[in-house]
Design a protein that fits this description.
The complex is a heterodimer.
Chain A: H1 10-13, H2 19-31, E1 32-36, E2 42-46
Antiparallel strand pairs in A: 1-2
Chain B: H1 8-16, H2 20-42, H3 45-64, H4 74-93, H5 107-110, H6 118-135, H7 140-151, H8 156-163, H9 167-187
The chains are: A alpha+beta, B mainly alpha.
């Protein structure tokens, strides 16, 4: 039976982002807000 | 509430309604697939983290702005966003100058090249999509001449016969097609350079 060899970098296949990156995303989510006014104006806000 | 048993659509609904934990679980569930994809293209962990973060910033904004289409599969959609951001990254990295189109350069020559690496291939794919989108905005008679000339390879004599117009009219339509395409490129800030 023929063997097929697949070359791949397992470190990359199983890679996950840094925890700090995920924390940044979650912080952004908490700080971000969006509003659309009655006249159609879109407002994006980032709270500190 | 058992978050772990929830489907993506349920987590997204909870998040949109203000449950931040649902977002955390959604990230945890898909971070490996999305990050691995980005890293496989960019080959730099720090930059891949940046692109991953930008991907989720876009996702969050789409959710909050009520623009998410629930019918689609979340992961496929997220990977498409990541893919587009990877292309943006390569475009920035290559510092592509925006070409000022003139009569002397042929946009169709730019998108035909022999060998290319993965990054160039991705950019080329995006350029072709951009160009195709713009071409479809041309008036029908100009679109027809453009198609017959550049995609079917017909001579202007053949185009004239096939479209039942004079050669001069066919040439004129081609000229206006290119003029309009350049205008559309400028309006949409489409750059066709690969290097």
């Amino acid at each position: 039976m023929d063997k097929t060899t697949t070359l791949r970098n397992d470190h990359q296949v199983n890679a996950r982002p840094d925890r700090q990156t995920v924390a940044n995303i979650l912080n952004f989510s908490k700080a971000y807000s969006y509003q659309k006014t009655s006249d159609g104006l879109e407002l994006e806000m980032i709270q500190n | 509430m058992d978050y772990n048993a929830m489907k993506d659509a349920e987590l997204i609904k909870l998040y949109i309604n203000g449950d931040e934990k649902a977002l955390s679980l959604l990230i945890n569930k898909h971070e490996q697939r999305i990050f691995s994809y980005i890293l496989s293209k960019i080959q730099n962990r720090d930059l891949a983290n940046d692109v991953f973060q930008d991907t989720f910033v876009k996702i969050i904004k789409t959710f909050r702005q009520g623009k998410y289409n629930e019918e689609g599969k979340f992961l496929n959609w997220a990977l498409r966003i990541a893919h587009n951001l990877v292309i943006d990254h390569f475009r920035r990295q290559k510092r592509i100058p925006t070409i000022s189109p003139n009569d002397d350069y042929d946009i169709f020559k730019i998108i035909k090249d022999g060998s290319e690496d993965a990054e160039t291939g991705m950019i080329r794919e995006q350029i072709e999509k951009d160009l195709h989108r713009l071409i479809l905005q041309l008036p029908p008679e100009q679109l027809e001449v453009l198609r017959l000339r550049h995609f079917s390879g017909l001579s202007f004599k053949d185009i004239a016969e096939q479209t039942d117009v004079s050669i001069n009219t066919a040439l004129g339509r081609m000229r206006y097609a290119l003029i309009n395409l350049r205008k559309l490129m400028e309006e949409h800030k489409v750059s066709l350079s690969l290097s």
